[in-house]
Specification:
The chain starts with a helix and ends in a 10-residue tail after the last helix. Helix 1 packs across helix 4. The relative contact order is 0.15. The chain has a two-stranded parallel ribbon. It is mainly alpha-helical.
Length: 118
């Protein structure tokens, strides 16, 4: 991953009240992005999704971890923003809620999601 892009995203997130220190945030993002890519390239199209908990386990967060929901949301937001800046597909769309099989409301609120998809 491009270190300069990651640093810019982190600085923006800090201004928007990211509570994680750089080392934790960047470590989780660096683990999550390749896991998302691996899921896409190694899965049949109809089984490409993964749950928030599954991704969390792969990057060292468990659903019972302190602040799991906020941390996984920040990591996915960073991955989505990174993909957008690099003109790459919005890979975070594959991460879904176990009950609804849909991305969470944070995904749908991303500014670069076309209005017709919201």
């Amino acid at each position: 991953m491009n270190e300069d892009v990651l640093q810019r995203i982190y600085e923006k997130h800090k201004r928007e009240s990211c509570f994680m220190p750089w080392d934790e945030w960047s470590g989780l993002v660096r683990k999550a992005y390749p896991e998302l890519i691996l899921q896409v390239v190694s899965s049949p199209f109809d089984r490409m999704t993964m749950t928030y908990s599954e991704l969390g386990c792969k990057i060292g967060l468990t659903a019972i971890s302190e602040w799991f929901n906020l941390k996984i949301a920040l990591v996915l937001y960073a991955c989505a923003e990174y993909a957008h800046i690099q003109n790459l597909p919005l890979i975070t769309a594959i991460v879904v809620n176990k009950e609804t099989a849909q991305p969470g409301k944070g995904f749908w609120g991303l500014p670069w999601i076309p209005v017709q998809l919201r």
